[in-house]
Amino acid sequence: MKGCLKRKFYRLNSYLDQKYPDFEAMFTESDENKRSLSLNKVLFKVLSFAVLSAGLLLLINLALISFTERGGVFGDFLGGALNPILTFFTLFGLIATIVIQRQELRLARHEYEKTADALSTQAIETTFLTFSICTIKL
Question: How many domains does the chain have?
Answer without folding.
Answer: 1
